[in-house]
Amino acid sequence: MTVGLAKRAEAARVRAMFEAAGAQPVETSVLQPAEALLELYGEDIRARAYVTSDALRGEQMLRPDFTVPVVQMHMQHGAEPARYTYSGEVFRRQEDDAKRANEYLQVGYEVFERDAPHEADAEVFALISSVLRGLPVRAATGDIGILLAAVDGLKTTDRRKAALRRHIWRPRRFRALIDRFSGRADVPASRVALLAAEDAFAEAGVEIGLRSKREVEARIAALREDSEAGPLAQGEVELMDAILSVQEMLPHAVEHLSDIAVDMPAIADAVDGLRRRTGALAARGVDVAQLSFEASYGRASMEYYDGFVFGFYAEARADLPPVASGGRYDALTRQLGQGGEIPAVGGVVRPGLMLGLKEGTL
């Protein structure tokens, strides 16, 4: 059997396991409209996707993942609750590592469940863990919802909170904003000069570029409003740093975050959700005492997840992408739901990596 056929056989085996767990098999088009992805991620997605143009259908992308089209399908036609599975190729441009595949098989399991979100989180994690049983992998978990709750609880302007929420998934930019909003870092000199100018357009010359004068004026007004806001309290910054530094086994992380919640009540509900999920995982046979939790996990690679996040990694190959990954994406269903929403969680596995680990070829 060729390598390609072996991977497809492995994908079929995994998909059959997901079907046995109650998932309905679905298919999505390889070519996806670019508009929805660009609205979700902005122009950042272009750096990772293959984009083409169609005279009738406009910009199209080779499918970068399955989650977005599956959510769109469910929000248009799906009943509740629902479980789906799928398999097929996804495509990602690789500019930094030529050894990483730009086309690979993915098999996924998605749950749309309104009444028991923590149990659904545990269901997806435990099922994927069972699919990987016997392979030399380690699991990592996190919870983006705790960070989002912490940002919402800061005593600062709505504009600053919106900026921090937007950059949760860009750790360097997030840190730079925290430092600037707290006074730890100086405002760039160019911005100081711009805000000090009585007429920013006095010597601007002919209007060029994509932004209109009105848009530039609105941006300057926003910057002036921000410059007049007081700095973040030092205590709040220290609590945010304490949350971001949590990295320990799950039960200890729950207790650590519970202690932080005493001083930052805004995260109390999210931490309670983490506690309930921990119980649901334990009820499904997951050894939570040996399950790693990191508050910052998933921030650099899981843009549309807004709650529980997880990944499974080859123990001896830190350079490889995750063998499986997933998480909760409630906000995505709101964005794509045209007024509707439903709590949702899912995960994907890479049968090619699974096969390599089984055969010892990685």
Describe this structure in words.
There is one protein chain. This protein has three domains: 1-136 and 323-362, BirA Bifunctional Protein, domain 2 (2-Layer Sandwich); 139-161 and 232-314, no CATH class; 162-231, no CATH class. Helix content is 45%, strand content 18%. The chain has 14 helices and twelve strands. The chain has helices at 3-20, 34-41, 67-77, 117-131, 144-152, 158-166, 171-182, 189-196, 213-228, 234-244, 250-263, 268-283, 330-336, 351-359; strands at 24-25, 31-33, 51-54, 58-62, 82-91, 103-112, 137-143, 247-249, 292-294, 308-314, 324-328, 344-349. The chain has a nine-stranded mixed beta sheet, sandwiched between helices.
Q: Termini distance?
A: 18 Å
In total, the number of strands is 12
Strand order of the largest sheet: 1-5-6-12-11-10-7-9-8
Work out the strand percent.
15-25%
Reading the helices and strands in chain order gives HEEHEEHEEHEHHHHHHEHHEEEHEH
| CATH H-level superfamily title of the largest domain | Bira Bifunctional Protein, Domain 2
How many distinct helices? 14
CATH architecture of the largest domain: 2-Layer Sandwich
Major β-sheet profile: 9 strands, mixed
Examine the coordinates and then state which fold CATH places here, giving the name of the CATH topology of the largest domain. BirA Bifunctional Protein, domain 2
Query: What is the total number of structural domains?
Result: 3
Structural class: alpha+beta
What is the CATH level 1 assignment of the largest domain? Answer: Alpha Beta
